[in-house]
Specification:
single chain; alpha+beta; Heat Shock Protein 90; five-stranded mixed sheet; three-stranded antiparallel sheet; 8 strands; globular; disordered N terminus
């Protein structure tokens, strides 16, 4: 694929947990053994990096603390877009019991800052069986 090339989030140096590629206005998240994606949304070239960064940080946090920190854990990513918004849902399963962190780490600050910069919203649902994150990003901010 052309564009910005693959980006990956890895728990270690061995193999990426998440591989993403950007081509002709479309961000592709490639299926791996622990991540599954449903959906597709068009992005402006210079905005794809923002979305990749946010997903990368979610994957890095999942690898350190969440479902990707254990062999049986997995993440399901779903997204959809209409004329107004792109919505992305990140759902972790099979990992350790989750609870809201006592303090916001650097990864969460990056994700929250990126979403805020794009004029979107983010919701963290800390269920014991796994974290669910819902992002809403205005299409207008992704097309700019």
């Amino acid at each position: 694929m052309a564009g910005n090339g693959p980006a990956s989030a890895a728990a270690g140096a061995d193999a990426p947990l998440l591989e993403m590629a950007f081509d002709s206005g479309t961000l592709y998240i490639l299926r791996t053994e622990v991540l599954a994606l449903a959906g597709q949304a068009g992005l402006a070239d210079h905005r794809a990096g923002d979305v990749v960064l946010a997903v990368h940080e979610l994957a890095a946090n999942a690898a350190k603390y969440g479902s990707l920190s254990v062999n049986q854990g997995a993440v399901q990513i779903e997204w959809e877009a209409d004329e107004r918004n792109m919505r992305l849902q990140w759902r972790e399963t099979g990992g350790p019991t989750t609870k809201p962190p006592e303090r916001q780490g650097n990864g969460a600050k990056i994700v929250n800052g990126t979403v805020q910069q794009l004029g979107g919203t983010i919701d963290y649902d800390w269920r014991p069986e796994g974290l669910t994150v819902r992002l809403r990003l205005p299409i207008a901010s992704l097309d700019k």
